[in-house]
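Could you show me some protein's one-letter sequence and the numbers that encode its backbone in two labelled lines?

___
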Amino acid sequence: MLPRQELLNGIENRDCIARIIDLAEQALKTWEITQTEFLSPPEIAEAQGIFRRLTEIQALSWGGYPQAERQRMAIARSEIPLDSSHVEIAAIDISGNFLFDTATHRDFLGSLLGTGIVREKTGDLIVLGERGAQAIVIPELVEYLEMNLTQVRTVPVKVQPIDLSELKVREPKKKAMTTVEASLRLDAIASAGFGMSRSKMVNLIDGGDVRVNWKEVKQASIAVKTGDLIAIRGKGRLEIGEVSVTKKQRYRVELTRYN
């Protein structure tokens, strides 16, 4: 048995992580590969932290393409080979003419969930503008959605399965930069990386729009470190690279911005 209570200490997404521990125990007992539903980035981060503490069990997450935010996780004993092919996912194309009635990510997601499925059964949604969208789902849902997803907003749509290789994923733009700051405070580093004023960054943090390693933070004064990922809703992500100290005792920080 895994040390459940010890593993759950300090965990925010307790119900989700408890279910993942159940799947891990099942994988240990049966020698079979188990799978989660789709997980959000904060859930993935906490689950990965759990598995790093365990030697007898391993986990691998995959969401259909390298930058996927929502992913399923396959779990197996450490002795069993595990790769992305063990994560069962499928993709669908949702096609329609959205030229005169533009649909957003929220519209497509609302129509998907309106068929009666739950969010945990769906992965990322890729909006293609006037042509429709693509969605990643569990394989068992493909036929159901072909029959039941017939309209998004006022637009009739047709759903058909596609290969994961047909996903039209936009590669994120990447920009490397260096900043020198008096401290490693979140508001200082993030304002430099995202090119905005410190006061505006503080407002975004206070408003709950900023996440560090996928967890919402509301303290502008927390210190960031190498490897941290700062995400701002609607503005992209910032990865903290190498941190060094200058002769004047200031911090030189390597940053990579994705948007």
